[in-house]
Amino acid sequence: MTTERAHQSDNRTRVLRTIWQENEISRAALSRSLRLAPSTVSGIVQELLDDGLIVVSHVARSRGGRPPVVLRFAEDGFAFLGVDLGASHVRVGLLDCRGNLLHSVGMPWPVENDPSGTLDLVDRLVASTLETREAQARHVVGLGLSVPSPLDPRTPGLLSPRILPCWEGIPVLSRVRALTGLPTWIDNDANVGALAELWWGAGRGVQDIAYIKVATGVGSGLVIGGHVFRGSAGVAGEIGHTAIDPRGPLCRCGLHGCLEAMIGSASLRRLVEERLADGASSMLSQVDPGPEQIATAARASDAVALDVLSHAGRYLGIAVANLVNLLNPARVVVGGSLPVLAGDELLDPMRATLAQRTLGRSFEATEVVVSALGEDAVVLGAATQVLEAALENPSLFADRLGSRPAHNPNVAALRSGA
């Protein structure tokens, strides 16, 4: 691409993104905001109108001279698919241009141990989602995939065999792309959770956040300067595999005393079983003590559940204190199933430990909040990957106009997408 064409493409991206951000804006306001010549803005606006990416909202009242034409993004015309592959579930969601979940479907599934069945289920759930009224009314731009594994940028379609040994060598990105026929993006679950909170949730308004996901495993997504930071090998934010106690229990990654080995779902279940074996009385003796059951028991003032959550909160606080001292984010957003279910029973001991172990100014400058998106964060973030990519490259929107996924007879040609 020549320098002039690259400059024109950059301006087109800036104009489209500004129209999306502002909801409604005139050509004159665009010119002032972006410091572009009115003729340049008018030319780009006409292209975007011709391409169907923006529409005229209304003509505003004149304050002297020609009444300004107010433009808006053609948000009713597009949607974005998100697929959340958890360790033990699959979920598919359809996102609109403003972060609203139009449709969602999912089910428990042994993802860790059943790659073939998982991919078949993804295909079925995506197909059923594309047949919904909400999807048929829009152009589906692409699919964002979230996976419970770090991703090496040199082999982005492959999951970590150390974390998910049954998935070793399976090119999950190309498999999902081939199954669904959709342009597909992929990232780690904590990274997309951070992206969702930045765009739609508790991270809005700040540029530096850490999203901590506590569920079956433990991970974090880091946003620095408004962008997800992945590191040179794609493992930035793997807080679940930082050492809390080098003499602690063996983690599934092969190391000892990782945070995940101390507070992941399997670890908490083991702690409950140890307390019960020691003779403690608890309502958890009657159930399989997963996060939901532990949180429910804690709300009923069950001593074993409260003790286990206090234990988890303290170790989580140690790990987050290290993160805060290193990165000094403006906001720490705590999400995943356990914090959402347990609330302050987990977060109060975490905050107390955090206050004890951080430098005073680091702690004072960092706000700790619970996820605003709850268990929707990952599927929303998975789909937001696609929206983010399309706003940076408007041709992705234009490519979908007049196209529909092959699952849907009214929207042919999406399977030819890159």
Would you mind describing this structure in some detail?
With 418 residues, the chain is α/β, with parallel strands linked by helices. The protein has helices at residues 3-22, 27-34, 38-51, 115-130, 133-136, 172-180, 189-200, 259-263, 265-277, 291-299, 303-327, 337-342, 344-357, 360-365, 377-392, 395-400; strands at 25-26, 54-59, 69-73, 78-85, 89-95, 101-108, 139-147, 184-188, 209-214, 218-224, 227-229, 331-335, 367-370.
Mean pLDDT: 89
| Portion in helices | 40-55%
Number of helices: 16
The main sheet comes to: 5 strands, mixed
Please tell me how large the radius of gyration is. Answer: 23 Å
**Cross-sheet strand order for the largest sheet:** 6-5-4-7-8
Please identify the structural class as seen in this structure: alpha/beta
Using brief descriptors, characterize the structure shown.
alpha/beta; five-stranded mixed sheet; 16 helices; disordered C terminus
List the helices and strands and how they pair.
Blueprint: H1 3-22, E1 25-26, H2 27-34, H3 38-51, E2 54-59, E3 69-73, E4 78-85, E5 89-95, E6 101-108, H4 115-130, H5 133-136, E7 139-147, H6 172-180, E8 184-188, H7 189-200, E9 209-214, E10 218-224, E11 227-229, H8 259-263, H9 265-277, H10 291-299, H11 303-327, E12 331-335, H12 337-342, H13 344-357, H14 360-365, E13 367-370, H15 377-392, H16 395-400
Helix pairs in contact: 1-3, 2-3, 4-6, 7-15, 9-11, 10-11, 11-13
